[in-house]
Structure formats: structure tokens, C-alpha cells
Write a structure and sequence with these properties.
Number of domains: 2
Structural class: alpha+beta
Largest sheet: 7 strands, mixed
Strand content: 25-35%
GO molecular function: hydrolase activity; metal ion binding
Number of helices: 11
Number of strands: 15
Family: Belongs to the peptidase M20 family.
Protein name: Peptidase M20
Keywords: Hydrolase, Manganese, Metal-binding
CATH architecture of the largest domain: 3-Layer(aba) Sandwich
Order of helices and strands: HHHEEEHEHEEEEEHHEEEHEEHHEH
Radius of gyration: 24 Å
Binding site for Mn(2+): 104, 106, 140, 164, 363
CATH class of the largest domain: Alpha Beta
Distance between the termini: 8 Å
Strand order of the largest sheet: 1-2-4-3-5-15-6
CATH topology of the largest domain: Aminopeptidase
Length: 391
């Protein structure tokens, strides 16, 4: 199953891979702004002799055609950075752009997949099928994967595989279990309208602050009292804006929050209940409510066969101790849009190492990765593709 030529090529190109990652880390680009990154990726793949084309407005798709007929497998890496100020001020490759950094490891994903592509070129004539490389923009705003799918990124693909570097687990550990991995991630916005007035005359008003506060306090019972306890779900209020002045009773209140779950029926149920709770809460106090529910990413559900293949590859390439079981996370990941189209799976590769100060949470200003994990991630990409096509 494991191709030793691929393993050797990954190791030989590990220093270059780290240089690429550090270049990308120092030049972060936000979602839908990955123009320089896309150009770099396009140029690198073209120099390898892999036919590539740019997507609109950013993103790159390329395909390596093997020397024999067979299926097509897609490998995906995301490229965008975050609006986060880097706190690792002593890094030689720290972000050069104020208020922007690769705080989630997408620079690592891109470098790993480019190195995997280079290794796969070395066995091109032996490959029975095709390998498609998908370099995706805008994962952080959960719109990039859908745009890539709409432009045909996985059209004609038989299987798709992705990786996320994971600072919450030990460097070198790999997780890919069948079933739920990441939750669906939705946004809801509620606008409450009352009747404003003087703070000294509440009897003449309908206080939107009271309506909104009551909703925030009671909406958690949507999960605790209307959702099956065996179906995990989270409703979080992250923002509330109410009123204009200390002595004026608020006429308007705006709330924003997120819903996370794994089950589509639970997702539908929570959406309906949020509207019911908002309308009834507003009515109790004499106000009105408008609810906007925005569906974001789907839940990432790993296919059983694909997840098993990842585990088999990991054991043969890195040993049985490389595997661990990661509980499903309520975090969102738009890789789900690829899985809506074709079978596949999404793996986590550990990069947490307190001795190198890389144990910080994703999206934190001190986030960084143990670069020793990159050889593992790059090889997992390449060996998965090889194993899928040759078995």
C-alpha cells in the first residue's frame, strides 16, 4: 500500500516545504483576497509539469494524470488567513501584514499539498488514474468550498480527502474516524422592536432591552428541553446590541448567534424553534421579532471506507501508535460541501508541542505549528491518493 518512492521524496523535500510554509505565513491573505498565494501555487504546480488553472476569483485546481487508466481522487488544502494580530513577535517569519495572520494552519496545508504533489510527480507513470489538487480560498468564511464545487472542482472525482493540522493533539498523531467529525455551523440574527421613550416613564414604552435579555436567558432551553439529549447541539449568543443612551428606553435590539449540530433534522428543528421563541418572547412584552437564519457549513461526516483507508495508510506509514480517536468537534469546516458531492474523509494531523510553544488554540494570536508534523501531513496526502488509486 505504501509507496517508498513517495516517502523518500517527501523527506528529501521537507526543507523546501518548510520554506514555502514560512513564506506563506509571512504573507497572509484574507478570504477572497488570496491572489498572491494563488499565483504562487499556480506557478509552483506549473513548474512541476502539472496542468493547473485558476478559479474565480481566487483558488487553483490542478490535475496530475497518471501513466495508467483509473479513477480520480481529489486532495484539498485551504489557503486563507485570518483577521488576527500575530503575537509571535520573535518569529523570523512572522506576519508582515498588520492585523492579519495564518492563525489556523492554512499556510501549512498549502505547503504540505504542494510537497505531496511534487512527490506524486516522481511516480507519475506508475499511477493508475488521476490526482486532482484543490487549493481552496475562503474557508474561514465558509464560502470557498461551495464556490469551488460550483465551478466544477470535484466534477468527475471518485473520492476526496482533506487534512487539517491540529494543535490540540500531539505532533504526529492522526485522527480520522468514520461518522461525524465537524458540526454544521449556522448563523442567526434576531431583531427585536419595541417602543422607545424616556427612561423615567417605562409605562409608556416597550423595552427592547428587556425583550432581548429575556430571549438570551430562555433560548438555551431550545437545546435543553426540545432537542433529543442523544443529539449534540449548541446554541450560542455571541453579540447583542441594545439602546442608544443611558436614560432612553431602547426601541431596538439586535442579537447574533450560532447553531452547531450534526443531525440535519435537529438543525431544522432548532431553526424553527428559534423563530418561535423570538416571536413569543417579543409578544409577551408587546414587541415584535424578525429572525434571519443563515445556513453555513454542513456537518462533516467521514465515509466509513475512506476513513478506514486513512487509518490503514497511517498505520503502515507511521506505525499503530500514530492513530488516536478525536471526538467530534462543534467547530465548522466547509470541506463538507465536497462530501456532499463525492465520498471521502477529513483527517486531523497533530502539531501540538509545548516544548516548541505550538499548543496554542487555533485562531489565537500565538498559534503556530510544530513543523515536524508537516512531513507526516504531506505524506498522508500523497500516500492516501496512491493507496486509493492502487487498491
Amino acid at each position: 500500500m505504501i509507496n517508498q518512492t513517495i516517502k523518500k521524496a517527501i523527506k528529501e523535500n521537507s526543507d523546501e516545504m518548510i520554506r514555502i510554509r514560512r513564506k506563506l505565513h509571512s504573507e497572509p491573505e484574507l478570504s477572497w483576497e488570496e491572489f498572491q498565494t494563488s499565483q504562487f501555487v499556480y506557478d509552483y504546480l506549473t513548474e512541476l509539469g502539472i496542468k493547473a488553472h485558476k478559479m474565480e476569483p481566487t483558488g487553483v485546481v490542478a490535475e496530475l494524470q497518471g501513466g495508467k487508466d483509473g479513477k480520480t481522487v481529489a486532495l484539498r488544502a485551504d489557503m486563507d488567513a485570518l483577521s488576527v494580530e500575530e503575537l509571535n513577535t520573535d518569529l523570523a517569519y512572522k506576519s508582515k501584514k498588520l492585523g492579519k495572520m495564518h492563525a489556523c494552519g492554512h499556510d501549512v496545508h498549502t505547503a504540505m499539498l504542494l510537497t505531496a504533489a511534487k512527490a506524486l510527480v516522481s511516480v507519475k507513470e506508475e499511477i493508475p488514474g488521476n490526482i486532482r489538487f484543490v487549493f481552496q480560498p475562503a474557508e474561514e468564511v465558509a464560502t470557498g468550498a461551495k464556490a469551488m464545487v460550483d465551478q466544477g472542482a470535484v466534477k468527475g472525482v471518485d473520492n476526496v480527502f482533506g487534512i487539517h493540522i491540529w494543535s490540540q493533539s500531539e505532533t504526529g498523531k492522526i485522527a480520522c474516524s468514520p461518522g461525524p467529525a465537524f458540526a454544521s455551523a449556522d448563523i442567526f440574527k434576531v431583531h427585536f422592536k419595541g417602543q422607545g421613550g424616556h427612561g423615567a416613564m417605562p409605562q409608556d414604552c416597550v423595552d427592547a432591552a428587556i425583550i432581548a435579555s429575556s430571549f438570551v436567558m430562555n433560548v438555551q432551553s431550545v437545546v435543553s428541553r426540545t432537542v433529543d439529549p442523544q443529539q449534540s447541539a449548541v446554541v450560542t449568543i455571541g453579540k447583542m446590541v441594545v439602546g442608544t443612551r443611558f436614560n432612553i428606553i431602547a426601541e431596538n435590539a439586535d442579537i447574533e448567534g450560532t447553531v452547531r449540530c450534526f443531525d440535519p433534522a435537529t438543525r431544522d428543528h432548532i431553526e424553527k424553534q428559534l423563530k418561535i421563541y423570538a416571536d413569543h418572547t417579543a409578544a409577551i412584552y408587546g414587541g415584535t421579532a424578525e429572525v434571519e437564519y443563515i445556513r453555513g457549513t454542513q456537518a462533516v461526516i467521514n465515509g466509513a471506507e475512506s476513513a478506514q483507508l486513512v487509518q490503514d495508510v497511517a498505520i503502515e506509514a507511521f506505525g499503530e501508535n500514530s492513530l488516536y480517536v478525536e471526538k467530534p468537534t462543534m467547530g465548522g469546516e466547509d470541506f463538507s460541501f465536497y462530501l456532499d458531492e463525492v465520498p471521502g474523509s477529513f483527517a486531523l494531523v497533530g502539531s501540538g508541542n509545548p516544548q516548541k510553544d505550538t499548543q496554542w488554540a487555533h485562531h489565537h494570536g500565538k498559534f503556530n505549528v510544530d513543523e515536524d508534523s508537516m512531513v507526516i501531513g504531506a505524506e498522508l496526502y500523497a500516500q492516501y491518493a496512491w493507496s486509493f488509486l492502487t487498491n
